[in-house]
């Protein structure tokens, strides 16, 4: 299984390098459209290779997807925490009940009852 993972990562690396090498031309990225920038008298832009725009889009999509999934799964995490707290409460109650039941018994018999 490890070799399959390494082979996949190697092929992925070759594909990403090939995409980067084929898309080295520079593009201008602007924060605002020309008309809006002229209206606000604020012009911000940068020149970057196309492959950086492509890879940044992939990374941004992944981050947005991870965040969205984290928000969506909040109810499941909250329910699991609630069940965990209930389990702890029930375990404490069980120990207390067993201690009350075994308080008049011989210590050896109480230990044997707990192990059964």
TrEMBL record:
<dbReference type="InterPro" id="IPR010445">
    <property type="entry name" value="LapA_dom"/>
</dbReference>
<keyword id="KW-1133">Transmembrane helix</keyword>
<feature type="coiled-coil region">
    <location>
        <begin position="73"/>
        <end position="107"/>
    </location>
</feature>
<feature type="domain" description="Lipopolysaccharide assembly protein A">
    <location>
        <begin position="23"/>
        <end position="94"/>
    </location>
</feature>
<keyword id="KW-0175">Coiled coil</keyword>
<keyword id="KW-0472">Membrane</keyword>
<dbReference type="Pfam" id="PF06305">
    <property type="entry name" value="LapA_dom"/>
</dbReference>
<keyword id="KW-1003">Cell membrane</keyword>
<keyword id="KW-0812">Transmembrane</keyword>
<protein>
    <submittedName>
        <fullName>Putative DUF1049 protein</fullName>
    </submittedName>
</protein>
<feature type="transmembrane region" description="Helical">
    <location>
        <begin position="46"/>
        <end position="68"/>
    </location>
</feature>
<dbReference type="GO" id="GO:0005886">
    <property type="term" value="C:plasma membrane"/>
</dbReference>
């Amino acid at each position: 299984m490890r070799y399959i993972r390494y082979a996949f990562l190697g092929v992925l690396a070759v594909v990403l390098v090939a995409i980067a090498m084929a898309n080295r031309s520079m593009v201008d990225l602007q924060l605002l459209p020309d008309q809006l920038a002229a209206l606000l008298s604020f012009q911000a832009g940068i020149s970057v290779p196309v492959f950086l725009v492509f890879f940044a889009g992939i990374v941004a999509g992944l981050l947005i997807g991870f965040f969205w999934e984290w928000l969506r799964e909040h109810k499941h995490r909250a329910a699991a925490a609630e069940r965990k707290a209930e389990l702890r409460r029930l375990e404490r109650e069980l120990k207390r009940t067993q201690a009350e039941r075994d308080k008049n018994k011989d210590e050896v018999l109480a230990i044997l009852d707990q192990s059964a």
